[in-house]
Design goal:
HD_domain; mainly alpha; single chain; HD/PDEase domain-containing protein; HD/PDEase_dom; Hypothetical protein af1432; about 200 residues
């Protein structure tokens, strides 16, 4: 199956990308690499559905009152008009996008959605995940750690990042998550020793 042109999708996605460094174009590229790696172990995945879903998973349209609106096939069709992509493909991509978010807590309804969710969450883990956590928190004025402020960045590991490993849907996602989870555990162990002045 011939996939869509990455350069075209990149140009369209960049035009509506968020500006924070934790959800920038390089995040999309990393998720796409991870998604392709996972998809090699999931032969039933439709790579064109997955490609569109990955490239647009963090560029959801805004509601007038703020926040994200669900992505629709019509919105994708407008963004990708020159591709003349089949409506069913765009509907499947939209469904994968709409179930990928950790905060929504929605389970994926397709193998493409499962791969997108796993790949996106893997990019929130390990060394990259640690960097993204502090980049995101710093951009929002959050403390690195403050025991009196539950919005601090270290707390985010316990609220979300350390929970990601156990929510993986694919065998390859679970395998990759193990190593990234250990990196975060090791980082936190070092962090607490340094915070308490107990490093050896």
């Amino acid at each position: 199956m011939t996939m869509f042109d990455d350069a075209f999708l990149e140009a369209r996605a960049r035009a509506v990308m968020p500006t924070d460094s934790a959800h920038d174009w390089w995040h999309v590229r990393r998720v796409w690499r991870l998604a392709q790696r996972i998809a090699r172990t999931e032969p039933t995945a439709d790579m064109r559905v997955l490609q569109v879903a990955v490239f647009f998973h963090d560029v959801m349209p805004k509601r007038p009152e703020g926040g994200h609106a669900p992505v629709t096939a019509a919105w994708l069709a407008d963004a990708l008009a020159p591709l003349d992509a089949p409506l069913l493909l765009l509907e499947r991509a939209a469904e994968a996008i709409n179930t990928h978010s950790f905060s929504r807590g929605a389970p994926p309804t397709s193998i493409e959605g499962a791969i997108l969710q796993d790949a996106d969450r893997l990019d929130a883990m390990g060394a990259i995940g640690i960097a993204r956590c502090f980049a995101y928190g710093g951009a929002r004025g959050r403390a690195i750690y403050d025991p009196e402020d539950p919005t601090n960045s270290i707390q985010h590991f316990y609220d979300k990042l350390l929970r990601l490993r156990d929510g993986m849907h694919t065998a390859e996602g679970r395998r990759l998550a193990e190593a990234r989870h250990r990196v975060m555990e090791q980082f936190l162990a070092h962090f607490w020793r340094e915070w308490e002045g107990e490093e050896t």
